[in-house]
Each structure stands twice: as C-alpha cells, then as structure tokens.
Amino acid sequence: MAPRLTSEFWVGAYLRRLDLYNIPAFVVARGDDTAGAVLVKLNKLDGRAAAYQRSFNIEGDRIWVTLAEGPEPDVDAVLNRQRDFDPDLWVIEVEDRQGRHLLDEDGLSG
Fold first, then answer.
1. H or E element at residue 60
2. Which of 41, 54, 94, 109 is least surrounded, with the fewest CB atoms within 10 Å of its CB?
3. 8 Å CB contact between 103 and 58
C-alpha cells in the first residue's frame, strides 16, 4: 500500500492539475490539514452539479463515487449536511461546463 498523502498536499496537487487544464476550482471549505476527508463539487454552470467523495472498492483500492447529483441547490444541501456532520471536511468546487473534474486521472485517487 502506498503511503497516504496529507489532505492539504492532495488538495494542492489537485488544484494545480486542474489549473494545468484551465479548469477553475476553489477551496470552499478548508478541513483538517492532515486527515480531513475531501469532497469535490462539480458545478456544470447550467444549474446542475455533482458531488464526489473518496471511497474504497471491494479490492480495497481508493475510488471516487458520486455522493449527490442534480440541481445545484440540492447538491449544496447535501454538502452542507456533510459539513455539519464533519467539520474537518474539505470541499473543493470545480467549475466546468464540459463536466471535467479529472478525478479519474492517474494519481488523483490518493
């Protein structure tokens, strides 16, 4: 098993990767630097959004799964409930009309 990156390091690397593709992204909520969970909100800029969270598949590999999808206010409500439950949570908002979040690229599962 590969060593686990700190949340702050992973978020910085993710934002840099998005920047290389000219995809705007912002830290909406800063969580615990070391071990805070990370949620990614994809704002499609058409009133719709999706939220993703890291999880594990049956083989134990880290994967991204859809937490919520639909009208942006509904997705925001899910994210707000998650933040109420876990104040150490990071929330990153990605804005892309094409629906790109890059979470399926190599190196971003960590």
1. none
2. 109
3. no
- What is the mean pLDDT of the segment spanning 100-109? 83
Stretch 75-86: mean pLDDT, rounded?
A: 96
Indicate the pTM of the whole model.
Answer: 0.90
Task: Count how many residues are written for the chain.
Answer: 110
When pLDDT is cut at 50, 70 and 90, the band that residue 1 belongs to is very low
Alpha helices in the chain (DSSP H): 7-20, 72-85
Domain ranges in the chain? Answer: 25-95
Residue 3 per-residue DSSP state: P
CB-based contacts of 100: which residues, under 8 Å, 6+ apart? 21, 23, 94
The reported pLDDT for the residue numbered 52 is 97
d(CA 58, CA 44): 30
Kindly give, in sequence order, each residue whose CB lies less than 8 Å from that of residue 6, ignoring residues fewer than 6 positions away: 33, 34, 35
